[in-house]
Amino acid sequence: MINRLAERIKQLEAPVVVGLDPMPDYIPGFIIDKAFKEYGGNIEGICEAIWVYIKGIIDAVYDLVPAVKPQVAMYEQFGPEGLVIYKRVIEYAKSKGLIVIGDVKRGDIGSTSEAYATGHLGRIAIRGKEFKGFDEDFITVNPYLGSDGILPFINVCKKEGKGIFVLVKTSNPSSGEFQDQLTCGRPLYELVGEKVAEWGMLHMGEGYSYVGAVVGATYPEVGRILRSIMPRTFILVPGYGAQGGKAKDLKPYFNKDGLGAIVNSSRGIIAAYKLKAYEGFGEKAYADASRQAVLDMREDLKQAWM
Amino acid sequence: MINRLAERIKQLEAPVVVGLDPMPDYIPGFIIDKAFKEYGGNIEGICEAIWVYIKGIIDAVYDLVPAVKPQVAMYEQFGPEGLVIYKRVIEYAKSKGLIVIGDVKRGDIGSTSEAYATGHLGRIAIRGKEFKGFDEDFITVNPYLGSDGILPFINVCKKEGKGIFVLVKTSNPSSGEFQDQLTCGRPLYELVGEKVAEWGMLHMGEGYSYVGAVVGATYPEVGRILRSIMPRTFILVPGYGAQGGKAKDLKPYFNKDGLGAIVNSSRGIIAAYKLKAYEGFGEKAYADASRQAVLDMREDLKQAWM
Lengths: 306, 306
What we know:
homodimer; 306 residues; alpha/beta; TIM Barrel; eight-stranded parallel barrel; 12 helices; globular
């Protein structure tokens, strides 16, 4: 799957992942109106609205980008019904040829990580029958519990030809509180980066490992250092656009082959119709606004990788 | 809710939380047989089996312990249908008077943590209507992203009178890989502990804060240090029993008032019927075995807090 990700990025000239994070106030009013009319002003109604909204985005961008990254929290906040939509989004995106990175940031002690790995990337066997949970292609994973919280994910990935992105340095303002703490004279995120490179050797693809890293766009100098610590690691880069990361700052995240990083934008694409630059599209054409925002982002990112 | 937790612990003389982690191979065969016969050998069947099994445990122990801790991964591995059961377990446990600690270990950047907080502890308002997701009383939270990943949880907790337990030092063998790294001469977990104490001041109950900590039973010396760094913090202690933690080692986790810690056991209680000590009960009386295991654990823990 990491080989396919690299290949699709090259084909489309787009190291871009669209974050499918349906905050309720991104959803166009006409979609909510229709869903509430059909299903009622209840959980079913809002979940239907999320589905229609996100399906519209996928239909508008699937031929432009290699991957989408649904943020599970935005679905999970509606309870089990929201997770039904999360799963439907995964299935639909895959049916359109997209690679799906589930942004779930799971991580726990060994036996529990194994259950998360099974549910998101693998299959569970009970009395000779196999069941699948959410079946993403990649998921994001939290490293705070160390190797024995990570290895169960890698084991499942090896069986399934799938991958993970481990949080190394996140894009949020207070990410430094723990991640930047100096340990033996260098920040914790470097130590985590080294472990990611080491875990990566356990499951290598053709040029890159199936074990990737998350490094926020908001800390380009850190990106440069981590790129050199983790040469065969694909970096998932959140924080571009709405969170403040700029394309020209992303050069250090890429290798000389023009690969090695994939940049996420969520709000800047799925809620593009709310931005000044795209307001001409209007709410009804929200998906066209998203398509244009992807085209613009693809152009913009050429500064970083070309 | 933290006041109620402390009060119930005193009433029952049981600083005990029962971990409801239904690993498939814990479920008695006769329950799976019946569920597969009724619902088919499929996801519905296995989810029904989990529900029947866990309901049996709750019915057997609800009058002995203040709280239960369902581990969401064990439900999530079955996809949305598993999370329907997770929610049903929460509702049922609450209907029996139990406090529910959702072991979800969530944590992300601010806006995403907000969605998790809303979905697990709060309510979401859409066009003047309020919806609830999972509605646990407490959840566990991962601190790797720092304050702005934690504060959204505390904000929701303040509104709802609920709480969180932040991972500080986990019970697994490789927890030290990052958590023990020396930062300014002391381990990272001490720094996290200090932040937990600081965050705790934002939402205080009568004697203890609504912001608790997770500190594994497998590192008693660490427990002693963290107890002194976080005097008003309730400590959720995993790793007793099956993972190797012993009652006599847990004394330092408690304050002199006999409070301040609540000890989890999962496998040792819910799969007690599989242990040598309780095998006389047999599979059919698995819930009676669990009840006896709780009674024994309560006795055993008196060494720690009395």
